[in-house]
UniProtKB/TrEMBL annotation:
Described function: Involved in the regulation of mitochondrial distribution and morphology. Required for mitochondrial fusion and mitochondrial network formation.
Entries under InterPro entries matching the protein: DML1/Misato, DML1/Misato_tubulin, Misato_II_tubulin-like, Tubulin/FtsZ_GTPase_sf
Keyword Cytoplasm in record: yes
A Gene Ontology cellular-component term: mitochondrion
Domain of life from the UniProt record: Eukaryota
Protein name: Protein misato homolog 1
Length: 584
């Protein structure tokens, strides 16, 4: 396939989406290379990054990104960023009247941001804080600064200091990337963006003008725009804003791919029973609306369910993470998202967004579910058949969409990705004449090994595969959430580290993910419909509809959800069962 760069514009709508997006962009930045001998790797970074120039003539590479959040959500980050000096463009303003100065104490920066400031000022960090292998960072604005940033290996413990996503942002953003919505506050009890209708009403006036201006800027410089990936908060008012934004993208850029990921944290600070009810309603309306306006819609969450009584978050065998910490949970989702989004970001054998969506969203089934093995348990020095043979009882991945896997149900489509097996063998290396211990060990290609393994669970379902050896590089400030059972490359060690010695710093990890369209989603959507339709919303949450939608629109959305759930029925099972419910 041609190596033409098919650009993507990313939109991040809401605070948790920006948490996940920040980790995701940090991963992209850590893998970026400007060396012409190594830049043509497996992943095509220009799909996501744009080249520019500062006023001083320095070449830069910044994300093709629009990030929207509320007033007070940036803390130490300037809205226009620090990559370009706005003082060179500022015009002098004179005022002859009296002035009153108000001095505000700047927000305190954590150790990671302080080190970034030192590098920006040209200072050199201690060698003890740096690893031996340099790597270039996203903006080529001081090679010494970025080389040290990429080598930074301090044991940052930011769990107690990360309050907003910019507290761990390691790369420069373009001045047009950030959009702050001043009508609502990030902190405090007053002026919170809590309801779907509030978000819907936002996309007009200055907010709409800003978004259109930023979109036109990024779109007009693209030669082969393949589409948009939208990360949107699902449990708050940003679900309403995301519904209107995806509708606008569909109307203005028809034919382009619109892949929407609905993000929800495991828990919210200062939550109350009424707010939990709002979260449920926002998730319900956001799922219906954004699925309708997108090529496909995929919820992404470590929460055990999107209702008010979720089950426990998934337990990953080789992670020690705190699901309640946004800094932790967003890092797990970002690592999975790095693999989930690979098919349309490759140099070779890349699949356009619309084609990937068409293979999954068939016959109106535009909601898909994600699953991930983070990390995939592989023994150092072993092979892919060995790793998969150890998982014969159950697939190694866990739900990333609060949707259980099909249990004897039907799979309409699946896209599986394996990323980060660099240095490991994809096939078995048996001596001549040795009988293969399993059928997996007799296959000659990694793709055949993975396909055979998945088809033991789903024999006749459509399946697409993508294998990429390059790992996600886990540089600072990615949290240290891996167990001591893993070595530096994220593979299982044959022996644990000696007692008293520090566990190795995990710098990369193999990840396997799956995007699925299955009958399980029908049951999941039907349960979402039941949860919302049994509520007497006028009695229990009358304020939710006070700013929209109208009651008629709300009922229409619930009916759309009911019909959407029926798209996932396996008719062969429905006709043979007398217990099928009316909803599903």
């Amino acid at each position: 396939m041609s190596n033409v760069c098919r650009e993507i514009i990313t939109l991040q709508l809401g605070h948790y989406s920006n948490f996940v997006g920040t980790h995701w962009w940090n991963l992209q930045d850590a893998s970026l290379s400007y060396d012409p001998d190594t830049s043509l790797g497996e992943i095509q970074s220009d799909v996501l990054f744009r080249e520019g120039q500062t006023l001083g003539g320095h070449v830069t590479h910044t994300p093709r990104l629009i990030a929207m959040d509320l007033k007070g959500s940036l803390r130490t980050l300037r809205q226009e960023g620090s990559l370009y000096d706005p003082s060179e463009e500022a015009s002098a303003v004179t005022w002859e009247g009296s002035l009153m100065m108000h001095e505000e104490t700047p927000a305190e920066k954590n150790p990671f941001l302080e080190d970034l400031d030192r590098l920006d000022r040209g200072q050199t960090l201690a060698e003890d804080d740096l690893c031996s292998q340099p790597r270039r960072s996203a903006a080529k604005v001081s090679l010494d600064v970025n080389s040290q940033l990429a080598r930074l290996q301090k044991a940052y413990r930011l769990e107690g200091s990360v309050r907003v996503w910019s507290d761990f942002l390691r790369l420069h953003l373009h001045p047009r990337s950030i959009s702050v919505i001043h009508q609502f506050n990030h902190d405090g009890e007053a002026h919170r963006l809590e309801a779907f209708g509030q978000g819907e009403a936002l996309l007009q006036g200055p907010v709409l003008e800003q978004l259109e201006d930023k979109l036109h800027f990024f779109v007009e410089e693209c030669d082969y725009l393949q589409g948009f990936q939208v990360l949107c908060d699902l449990a708050n008012g940003f679900a309403g804003l995301g519904s209107k934004v995806t509708e606008m993208l569909q109307d203005s850029y028809g034919g382009r791919g619109i892949l929407t990921w609905g993000l929800a944290p495991v828990s919210h600070p200062d939550s109350t029973p009424m707010r939990e009810l709002y979260h449920q309603l926002n998730c319900t309306l956001g799922t219906v609306s954004m699925a309708s306006n997108s090529s496909f819609f995929c919820p992404l969450t470590l929460r055990g369910g999107l209702g008010r009584r979720p089950s426990a978050p998934p337990a990953f065998p080789h992670l020690n993470y705190d699901p309640s910490l946004w800094y932790h949970s967003s890092s797990v989702l970002a690592l999975a998202l790095d693999a989930l989004t690979l098919p349309y970001r490759l140099h070779r054998d890349s699949v356009p967004m619309w084609q990937m969506a068409d293979s999954l969203a068939v016959s109106g089934r535009k909601v898909v579910a994600a699953y991930g093995a983070v990390p995939l348990p592989m023994m150092q020095g072993s092979s892919l058949p060995d790793a998969l043979t150890a998982c014969t009882e159950a697939l190694p991945w866990k739900p990333l969409s609060a949707c259980p896997e099909p249990d004897n149900g039907r799979l309409y489509g699946q896209w599986a990705t394996l990323k980060g097996y660099e240095g490991q063998r994809l096939t078995s290396s048996l001596a001549p004449g040795t009988r293969p211990p399993t059928p997996l060990h007799s296959l000659n290609r990694g793709e055949d090994v993975l396909e055979y393994y998945i088809r033991t669970f789903y024999p006749s379902s459509p399946l697409a595969l993508q294998l990429v050896s390059s790992p996600s590089k886990l540089t600072a400030p990615f949290p240290r959430i891996f167990t001591p059972s893993l070595g530096a490359q994220g593979f299982l060690q044959s022996q644990p580290p000696p007692r008293g010695s520090p566990a190795p710093v995990v710098s990369s990890a193999p990840v396997m993910t799956s995007l699925q369209s299955s009958t399980s989603l029908g049951s999941w959507l039907a349960e979402m419909h039941r949860g919302a339709s049994t509520l007497d919303i006028c009695r229990v949450a009358p304020s939710f509809l006070s700013q929209g939608p109208e009651m008629a629109d709300y009922r229409e959305a619930l009916e759309e959800l009911r019909l959407l759930s029926r798209c996932y029925r396996d008719d062969s099972m429905v006709h043979s069962s007398s217990e099928e419910s009316d909803d599903y």
